[in-house]
Write a structure and sequence with these properties.
949 residues; mainly beta; Methylamine Dehydrogenase, Chain H; 6-stranded antiparallel sheet; 5-stranded antiparallel sheet; globular; endoplasmic reticulum
Length: 949
């Protein structure tokens, strides 16, 4: 009988060996899986020299999440962001940044009964997303690409025929989410509205209903107070209301006199009132008063006949069986919330809360959460957003505040911090005009007595006398600690210290806007720094005036706001100018108190000086002062000279003009060099030991235009223009290319990025300008004396990422190598060495030079070049760089939806010892050398003595 296979000793040994090997393999897999869970960071990547702050932007929709156990606030913002905020601290729990621009604009957002979230964004295609509100993960996503393919009069086709809906009025398309169903309301001019219902989770089309409404036209202002679609025609005084869920019901009409009462005057405006009860407000008498209409339980529009102040913000909410309208008013820096029960006809407003807090400036209620269905102030939490875009949570007091204005910064400056009190005393001691012996002796004795008193107090452990300024806001020896002054589009100015990112002070300038509607740009000038003690540092903000009311005329006149950038104190306050500012210029010459004046050119080409008492300084600098202006609407560039000024009056004389056709070449960018930039090297040494001198023209400006050619293909044109003489130095055309375009202009080179439509990729092009091997002028450059055109080296590279912003590094003396900081769409900020984009990179081996790497068409992105490592920053709108006290170090501030600050050293830290430098070793070596030299000297002298004897 054959032996059993199971009883075989060889099989048992093989089985045990296999079992042992499998256990070892499992342990090995577990060990390697632990490596994937571990995170490794370098020491300089843990926030030692950098910090980041995350924001969400101005609130558009908000709601309290009361279904899940972890209470939070769900918000959707103007920056195309959906996020969840911690209800106790205001910190961001999760944040999702949607598509950029129009495609990501959020149209509607609603919480479902099961605690999930539904959002609609974009136009064509409209994107519907179903979110997990606890984690922010997308559960489902579907698109609504074509609203009605059977009709040619699609609302998204630009067409001039009467009755068609243009793409410019895409905001009139309304969305309504109820009980898991998404309703899409599409108005059609002079015809009616089309209501299409979808399953919000799957995107399945349920039904389509057409409702006749011939009164809808381009002049009709409509809002959706579900289920009512309410319209107000501007050329009449009739209000139309349609029930979108009852298509056979005739539209209801109401006259304005019935709503507002007899004797009311226009203009009349209609707007949607937030809350969990659908309501609208109708304003009259130039928005001095308004009345409320809300949807009752029987789905009828009900009028509340009490007049409400036009400036009050409304919020309609249902508490149990009562419908209550909450009004928030702002007067004398006091925010007051009142409540009125709409169910009771004779109910009067009841004050339920009043608060005076600096974080609240004309706030509006955007969400409310009450416990036990009570409307008492102590039981309710109020989420409010102010005119300065800040978000605050209130419950008898302000729980927390988020400064969301920082998500939209339009101007930045680095300000050097002032000296310490000891340094000020020394500065005062030696910076005196009188030189008598007794006065100097008294100041010396007083200074030393103060120093001795401070030393004794430190020994005894006594606290010195407190200063009016913070002790940590002083200048450090390397100039790395500075104040960041940031101006936001909301008119709020922040002072942020660069070490930790703490907001030291904040100012609000009411009723201002940027000069351009597209970029909302404002200008921030540093008229005096912190080096001129006892004169305080001074900054001036230049912007345009905005009317207090919407119905008032927008003059667009300029304003100047003067303040101290270190502590935020007002120095001159707000000054309104009675003219529009066309161009401005900060002069280099200073007054007796070290103040640099600002030259302003108005829309009538008249010249003004701020401050006015500095006109003598501006007049003396007039012969060498030139100003250029750009009108992007008309495509006209003009150059002016102040050389024709008289001692009594400054005169701007036009010396040249350049016109671009706005139809074919629309001006998009005008980029000049950094005024504080210094050029250390005047030339470039070639392989044959000759010098190729740089073309360093401080008056050179890059002008970028975009348009179409005869074949209707997109083109990009770049011009290098001397704005003093008006001469064209260089021009280049890129066919089949389009924006976004980002330009960096520095020294004798230019770097710009664009999108190549033919190859469908982002490219970076570089230009480098040289005078040749002979330098025309070694002292001062003159645009009027230069006639020879420069030699232009140019090259293009493939960049494997989308670019959001670019900026060059800058140092105090200009000795350090230049690097390009590139903000990527994926949230990284790349430090790109200039050698990689050098246009002199040789294509052929015969053209190779020393120190120049061979040409490669694609620029690699090395992960060690990402200066913000895993601290991603999104929607970057600008990068600001500033020199420090160290020639090797450049300070970097990145702003957009997030803020990020760090320092970079393009040529490494050659002027600073490393932190692990062995001081003891160097002391021992130096001591040994000193002792050995002394001993050697003694021995040598004794030997000479014996030899001579």
């Amino acid at each position: 009988m054959a032996p059993s296979l199971i009883a075989s000793p060889n099989f048992r040994g093989n089985f045990n060996r296999l079992f042992t090997d499998s256990q070892f393999l499992q342990c090995l897999i577990l060990l390697f899986s632990l490596f994937n869970l571990s995170l490794c960071l370098y020491e300089d990547q843990v926030g030692k020299f950098d910090w980041r702050q995350n924001y969400v932007g101005k609130i558009k929709f908000a709601s309290f999440d009361s279904v899940s156990t972890a209470k939070k606030i769900i918000v959707a913002t103007e920056e195309n962001v959906i996020a969840a905020l911690n209800i106790k601290t205001g910190q961001i729990l999760w944040r999702r940044v949607l598509e950029k621009g129009y495609a990501g604009r959020i149209r509607a957002m609603e919480n479902t009964m099961d605690g999930e979230l539904i959002s609609v964004n974009g136009g064509v295609p409209a994107i519907v997303r179903y979110w997990n509100s606890a984690t922010g993960h997308i559960i489902n996503e579907w698109t609504l690409a074509d609203q009605n393919p059977d009709r040619i009069d699609s609302p998204f086709i630009s067409y001039t025929t009467e009755g068609l809906y243009s793409s410019e009025r895409i905001e009139d398309v309304k969305w309504h989410i109820k009980d898991g169903t998404l309703h899409h309301i599409l108005p059609i001019y002079n015809s009616g509205i089309e209501v299409t219902s979808y399953d919000s989770k799957t995107g399945e089309k349920l039904k389509t209903t057409k409702i006749s409404a011939p009164f809808i036209s381009q002049d009709t202002e409509c809002v959706l107070a579900a289920p009512h679609y309410v319209c107000l025609k501007s050329d009449s005084v009739i209000l139309f209301s349609i029930n979108i869920f009852k298509p056979k019901q005739q539209p209801e009409t109401l006259t304005i006199n019935h709503i507002m009462g007899s004797g009311s005057q226009g203009p009349y405006r209609i707007s949607l009132v937030p809350g969990n009860v659908a309501a609208i407000s109708i304003s009259a008498d130039n928005n001095r008063r308004k009345r409320l209409m809300y949807v009752h339980e029987n789905e009828n529009l009900t009028l509340h006949t009490r007049d409400i102040e036009g400036d009050n913000f409304l919020y309609v909410n249902k508490f149990g069986d009562n419908i209550v309208v909450l009004e928030s008013s702002y007067d004398n820096k006091v925010t007051t919330i009142t409540a009125t029960e709409l169910n009771k006809p004779d109910a009067q407003p009841e004050k339920i809360g009043s608060l005076n807090h600096k974080a609240l400036y004309n706030p509006a209620l955007v969400a409310i959460d009450c416990t036990y269905q009570s409307m008492k102030a102590k039981m309710c939490k109020y989420l409010m957003t102010s005119e300065d875009h800040s978000i605050s949570l209130l419950q008898q007091k302000v729980f927390w505040t988020r400064e969301e204005a920082l998500a939209n910064i339009v101007a930045v400056e680095f300000i050097e911090l002032p000296m310490s009190e000891r340094d000020r005393a020394i500065e005062t001691e030696f910076d005196q005009k009188e030189r008598d012996v007794i006065g100097m002796l008294v100041r010396r004795l007083t200074s030393q007595a103060n120093q001795a008193s401070t030393f004794i107090q430190s020994l005894l452990g006594l606290e010195p006398q407190q200063s009016s300024e913070r002790a940590d806001l002083v200048r450090d020896k390397f100039g790395l600690h500075k104040m960041i002054v940031a101006v936001t589009s909301a008119g709020k100015i922040f002072g942020i210290e660069s070490k930790k990112g703490e907001i030291i002070w904040q100012l609000r300038v009411p009723n201002i806007r940027g000069f351009s509607q597209e970029t909302n740009n404002m200008v921030l000038y540093v008229q005096r720094g912190s080096r001129h003690y006892p004169h305080p540092p001074q900054c001036s903000l230049l912007a345009a005036d905005k009317p207090i009311r919407d119905y008032l005329q927008d003059t667009g006149n300029g304003i100047i706001f003067t303040f101290n950038p270190i502590n935020g104190e007002l120095l001159g306050g707000l000054k309104k100018l009675n003219y529009k500012v066309k161009q401005s210029l900060l002069l280099h010459a200073t007054t007796d108190n070290f103040l640099r004046s600002i030259v302003l050119l108005d829309d009538k080409d008249r010249v003004h000086v701020f401050p006015e008492n500095a006109s003598a300084i501006a007049t003396s600098a007039g012969p060498n002062t030139f100003i250029f202006t750009v009108d992007k609407t008309t495509g006209v560039l003009s150059g002016y000279s102040l050389s024709y000024s008289t001692p009594q009056n400054l005169v701007a004389h036009k010396v040249w003009e350049l016109v671009f056709s706005p139809k074919n070449q629309r001006i998009t960018h005008v980029v000049s060099k950094d005024p504080i930039e210094r050029v250390h090297s005047q030339g470039r040494v070639l392989g044959d030991r000759s010098v190729l001198y740089k073309y360093i023209n401080p008056n050179l400006v890059a002008v970028v235009t975009q348009g179409t050619n005869g074949a209707h293909k997109n083109t990009l044109n770049l011009y290098l223009l001397d704005v003093v003489s008006g001469s064209m130095v260089f021009s280049i055309v890129h066919k089949r290319t389009k924006g976004p375009v980002h330009v960096v202009h520095s020294e004798n080179w230019l770097v710009y990025s664009y999108f190549n439509e033919k190859s469908r990729r982002t490219e970076i092009a570089t230009l480098e300008l040289y005078e040749g091997k002979t330098q025309s002028n070694t002292t001062v450059f003159s645009s009027l004396a230069t006639t020879k055109l420069p030699i232009v080296e140019r090259q293009a590279f493939i960049f494997p990422a989308s670019v959001e912003s670019m900026q060059e590094t800058i140092t105090e003396k200009g000795i350090t190598s230049k690097h390009i900081l590139v903000a990527l769409a994926n949230g990284g900020v790349l430090e790109l060495p200039w050698m990689l984009v050098d246009p002199r990179r040789p294509v052929n081996p015969e053209m190779r030079e020393e120190g120049v790497i061979p040409y490669m068409p694609e620029i690699p992105i090395h992960m060690d070049g990402i200066i913000n490592y895993n601290q991603s920053v999104y929607r970057v709108s600008g990068i600001h760089t500033s020199p420090s006290g160290l020639e090797s170090t450049c300070l970097v501030f990145v702003h957009g939806l997030d803020l990020f600050y760090t320092r970079v050293a393009p040529s490494k830290t050659f002027d600073v010892l490393k932190e692990d430098f062995d001081y003891y070793l160097i002391v021992i070596v130096l001591s040994a050398l000193l002792i050995s030299s002394y001993v050697t000297k003694k021995l040598a002298s004794q030997k000479d003595l014996k030899t001579n004897s």
